[in-house]
Amino acid sequence: MKNTVIEKLDILEESGKITHEQRLQLEEKWQKRKENSSAVSSMEETATETHNTNEIDIDENQDVIPVGSQKELVCKSIDEDIEIIGDPQLKNIELKKGRDLVDIVCSEQRISIKSKNDVAQRSFFVGRKKRRIQLLVPSVLAITLKSVSGDLQLHNLQQSVVAKSVSGDIQANELHGLVELETISGDIEINSTTHLCKAFTKSGDIEISNSAIQGPIKCFSGDIGIVNATISDAEIGTFSGDVALKKVSPQGTIYLKTYSGDLHAHLLTNGGTIATKDTNKSRKFIDYMGQEQTFTDQPVSFGNGADVELLIKTKSGDENIKLEENLSNV
Question: For a tag site, which of 172, 192, 224, 329 has the least CB within 10 Å?
Answer without folding.
Answer: 329
